[in-house]
Amino acid sequence: MTNPSGREISPFIAMEVLKAANQREQAGDPVFHMEVGQPGTPAPKKVIAAAKAALDTQQIGYTDALGIPPLRAAIARHYHDFYGVEVSPSRVVVTTGSSGGFLLTFLAAFKKGARIVLAEPGYPAYRNILSSLDLDAVGLPCHAETNFQPTPELLATLDGPLDGLLVASPSNPTGTMIKRGELAALIDYCRDRGMQFISDEIYHGICYNEPATTALKLTDDAIVINSFSKFFCMTGWRLGWMVVPEKMIGLIEKIAQNLFISPPALSQYAAIAAFDDMAEMDANVKVYARNRELLLSELPKIGLDRLASADGAFYLYADVRDFTNDAVDFCTRMLAETGVAATPGLDFDPHRGNGYVRFSFAGSTATIEAAIEQLKSWPSLKKGSR
Fold this sequence. Notes:
The chain has helices at about 15-25, 45-55, 70-85, 95-110, 125-130, 150-155, 180-190, 250-260, 265-270, 280-300, 325-340, 365-375, and strands spanning about 30-35, 90-95, 115-120, 135-140, 165-170, 195-200, 225, 240-245, 315-320, 340, 345, 355-360. The protein is an alpha/beta fold. The longest helix has 21 residues, at about 280-300. It is globular. It starts with 12 loop residues before the first helix and ends in a 10-residue tail after the last helix.
């Protein structure tokens, strides 16, 4: 899609699949939702209780543009408790979802025409937000050999000046992670070349083999973006946060004042309680882990045996080239013929994504089990069906 300014803005295909799945449900047909990265459980009980209390005791009006001080302090404590990292609350910026964080980051860190490197496959909104701001998203093709993550060696193959690098660990759509030493190498590469390092840590806490490393363990110069949406199961509350270098706080505050006025007040008052009962969130991760193991066991039996490592998050990125060279058509038929909703890889990789499909396992185990049963009998997953 081209808007009147001439910018190319692509649709978010996962949301298009969700719309089609919802229409199927409204028609009375069964749907097994594996298309969007939305936890199947509600917000933490203490968050819901805090929201109810805030309605009775707080004026739900504008707040400071950077967020209410108690929430900024709670997020700073979280870095001490969860990572062993000391972060000043003054460096914490509360945002309208992680999406607001990316917008503030790109506007504050880069001038028009700057070139920011993104791994392919990767979250499509990065690319589309950058394009809407007249910034250049430089795709870096990543393969299974590097766990679908960037490396200094891959970065060195890119031509022209580069102004920034955005990484996600765990990643959407692959669920792959960057180990501490590899993360340090990427940070050093950017520092030595004057590139801004941005770390998307929205899936931290949802890890299966080892915990993720925050970039803040290794540098104070990175911009770190996180959210209450995934680990804390608060997607619709539209609340995220950033940790930024001290030198950027003033500029980010001015931009936030003008673009957003403030993050949602009710969500902020409620989110203070999100850190009070981590056991509830850990129990959710155990469900994701069970769903993951089920898919890793059963999908290869029906021919989907080339899967990204899925060390974190709640996605499996499957190579479907044995069955199709058109993942959009493949997912359309899969929804129509089996009720299983999944996202074509073209959403995440505009060049190679037609050979991949992303399955989300953030829902209930019953949903995953039912979806597998549907796929077992789907003719399009038989060898030679292409």
